[in-house]
Amino acid sequence: MPIIEIIFYLFSTVLVLSALSVITVGNAIHAVLFLILSFFSAACIWILLQAEFLAITLVLVYVGAVMVLFLFVVMMLDINVTSAKEGFARYLPAGVLVSLAMAVQLFLVIWTRGMETVPMPAAEGEDYSHTSAIGELLYSEYLYAFEIAAVLLLVAIIAAISLTHRRRPETKYQDPSRQVRVKREERLRIIKMKSEGEEG
Amino acid sequence: MTLAELQLALPEIFVLSMACVVLLADLFISDERRGLTHTLAVITLVFATILSLRLMMAPGEVIYGFSDTFIRDRFGDVLKVFSYLILIGVFVYAKHYLRQFDLFKGEFYTLSLFALLGTMVLISAGSLLTVYLGLELLTLASYALVAIDRNSMQGSEAAVKYFVLGSLASGFLLFGMSLIFGATGSLDLNDVSAALASGMGESMLLTVGLVFIVLGIAFKLGAVPLHMWIPDVYHGAPLPITLFLSSIPKLAAVALAIRLLDNGLIELHADWQGMLIVLAALSMILGNVVAIAQTNIKRMLAYSTISHMGFVLLGMLPATQQGYAAAMFYAIVYAIMSAGAFAVLILLSNKGAEAENLDDLKGLAKRNPWHALMMLMLMFSLAGIPVFVGFFAKWQVIAATLSAGFTWLSILAVVMAVIGAFYYLRVVKLMYFDEPDDTEPVAAPVDFRAVLTVNGVAVLALGIFSGGLISLCVSSFV
């Protein structure tokens, strides 16, 4: 077995096991860490496919930025794991039944039709750059799709803000322009009253 | 990219720019003058209609743009024009409700316009990539719209359900697409079709990919057995959002099915026909039978949607031009009818309480005879009673199925249509023969009443002069 296949199976095993752990471990923080591990393994597999740009982006964007934010959110929320696992035993028989049925069906299809192999794409030369290939395609052939993806992000921002932003009337805030324009009368009120001494 | 390509996508570019203008302008509009946002959004749709009509009038050949990721054809233009017109109706209906329920905010308009943009991208998608992106744009905006009333627990619950199930369905679709891409080596629908035609129809990757794609389509249409989300989301969302969800996304789902199954995977027709037969038959049976048991009218109309989508699938499965035209005609007609039916519910909703139960419709004829008449026409049309356009929609679909040789399926469709007539006619009975609980006359702003009247009369007029719309749909598939 060539070394590249050994590496592939190694990373694939780690990927599958860590992905399984994401949904089975009890602690939410551990789940996020396993998710990071699975992203990392996926990035390594991409490197094997010579898709170095995608692999680096995955690590930079997902592992570096998104998952860190995710970790913050998970740490701030008080997630009750026991309530999330409630009813597990109750739904287990139905779940197992459906999964078994699907597994049998898939197996039958594969059994009758036989596995097939898709030919490996030819490896590119040493001076081939995926980064520039992606860049060229993205801004020429897939320009329209690229723009729509940008709109999708815009909608995600609008949706997130419209669902979470609230104007709270009870919130206290400073208004610098009013602070500057304040008049003496607003700061200090002079009232006339009899002094203590006159009475006595 | 050339100027000619940009001109093809002029309606999309216009709607995108105006959605951004509405988004920004709304920030500077005070709450008292929020009507301006509404006017701006309606003007956008009017101009978009003109732009698309101009493209529609041009010679009918199919033009590809943006490296084949964009298709301009008559089918797309007709669907887009109807999307704009129906959305104008949705906006007018929604304004009345949003004002009453203190939800009159700019986000509704921005998100709806972006959802429309997603629909447009999907309608004229030429590659798997644009199909997916258009669909995501539409559904992402829809998730947010369902949760627009943040103080409503029901709305939030519906939004989360919709989001989780919708993401799962998008995942199915994407998985199917990636398998198709892996087998054919192209994202381009034409190339996929050409690769399949050159003799790789028996590949297992393709079959598995096709199963996932059909599942994704079935979810978006709301066909049984992937219909579970429809009643809950329709019930939980505020009325104008339900109104929106039951109209424009249905047109988008039909475009999704036709683009993927006809433009891309027509060579696998023998495989997907069987799947659509099961989906169509189950949807018609379950939708119509379960709708009878509903006392909540939003849920009743949700189950009626499921059964109507069964009819749409029925038109699609023979994979003939006649069938596609019938399915397209059915979807357009359904969107018009269901918009009107939900509008009457908005009309009956008073400050703070939505008209949800069948009993809320009691004696509508005494409270507001004209609008009761409109509802009567809409219900007759949904039931498929002759003269009204709903009858011709069913007629076209069943004729297409019969001529493809599916006699038992056509008989089932007719039987289910008769069963379905029961719950539509029950609404008419409640309106005309029961005494109202609340004798207060129903009032609505003049634009609302005008659009509702147009909507109701359209159902009759399109029925009497159904030839025009039918030939428009037929000409889309020549």
What does this structure look like?
The complex is a heterodimer of chains A (200) and B (478). Chain A is mainly alpha-helical. In chain A, 72% of the residues lie in helices and 0% in strands. Chain A is built from ten helices and no strands. Chain A has helices at 3-24, 28-48, 52-76, 81-84, 88-113, 130-139, 143-164, 176-180, 184-187, 196-199. Chain A is elongated. Chain A starts with a helix and ends with a helix. The model of chain A has no long low-confidence stretch (mean pLDDT 85). With 478 residues, chain B is mostly helical. Chain B is built from 21 helices and two strands. Chain B has helices spanning 3-8, 10-27, 35-57, 74-100, 106-123, 128-146, 153-184, 189-197, 204-221, 229-236, 239-245, 248-264, 269-292, 297-316, 321-348, 364-367, 369-383, 389-403, 407-433, 446-464, 466-475; strands spanning 63-65, 70-72. In chain B, helix 4 packs antiparallel against helix 11 (239-245), helix 7 (153-184) crosses helix 10 and helix 11 (239-245) packs antiparallel against helix 15 (321-348). Chain B is globular, with a radius of gyration of 21 Å. The model of chain B has no long low-confidence stretch (mean pLDDT 92). The chains are: A mainly alpha (200), B mainly alpha (478). The A-B interface holds A 109-110, 113-116, 118, 140-145, 148-149, 151-152, 154-156, 158-159, 162-163, 166 and B 1, 9, 16, 23, 65-67, 69-70, 105, 107, 110-111, 114, 117, 121, 127, 129-130, 133-134, 136-137, 140-141, 143-144, 147-148, 150, 182-183, 202-205, 207-208.
